[in-house]
Write a structure and sequence with these properties.
With about 190 residues, the chain is α+β, with helices and mostly antiparallel strands. The chain is about 15% helix and about 30% strand. The radius of gyration is 16 Å and the shape is globular. This is Gamma-glutamylcyclotransferase AIG2-like domain-containing protein. It comes from Streptomyces nanshensis.
Length: about 190
């Protein structure tokens, strides 16, 4: 990984080291979480990307804009490794810059929701998360119980991939990537 890959691309919106929303092979327990995120993140918490759909891909999923919800995890880079992590994820997701014709994914800023814990028992929402606390962003905790949306980087399918998915893709009902699928090699969000 070169230093040139460690900063946001020109034309990207200001980030102030935004957290990342992941929904596929970067989820806790999935192969790319261990390869790319171990030791580089803190504050992992279940999250939901509204106004999005999840499609099955060749061993990894694609999220696109749509009328559903995608379930995943919001995570924050360990202080001092943000640029390294951003470069690693851009490389993994084959993101070459905003609107680049060879992008597999586009890195975009979206608002994600952090579901609050209900007092009615222990749901699966806390698994792998940071409990009821929020995620640390820029030195401040955001997204505690009952918090509003949090801005985050999300890798959505690039335009050509999105067109293909809309015409012949396999939608994942419920917007939740199922773990334990046969690996198709290191890949995606």
């Amino acid at each position: 990984m070169t230093a040139a890959m460690s900063t946001p691309h020109p034309g990207s919106p200001p980030t102030d080291e935004l957290p990342f929303f992941v929904y596929g092979t970067l989820l806790p327990g999935e192969p790319n979480h261990e390869l790319f995120l171990r030791g580089r993140t803190t504050g992992e918490r279940p999250a939901v990307l509204p106004r999005a759909l999840l499609y099955d891909g060749p061993g990894y999923p694609y999220a696109i804009d749509g009328h559903g919800r995608v379930h995943g995890t919001l995570l924050t880079a360990v202080p001092g490794v943000y640029g390294e992590l951003l470069g690693l994820l851009d490389h993994l997701e084959e993101y070459l810059g905003p609107g680049h014709p060879r992008n597999l994914y586009e890195r975009v800023v979206r608002e994600v929701e952090l579901p609050g814990e209900s007092g009615a028992g222990r749901g699966g929402e806390a698994a792998g998360g940071a409990g009821q606390g929020g995620v640390e962003v820029g030195g401040e905790e955001v997204g505690g119980e009952g918090a509003g949306p949090v801005r985050a980087w999300v890798y959505l399918a690039a335009a050509a991939v999105t067109r293909s998915l809309r015409t012949g893709g396999s939608l994942i009902d419920g917007g939740r990537w199922v773990t334990g699928r046969p690996p198709g090699g290191p890949r995606t969000p």
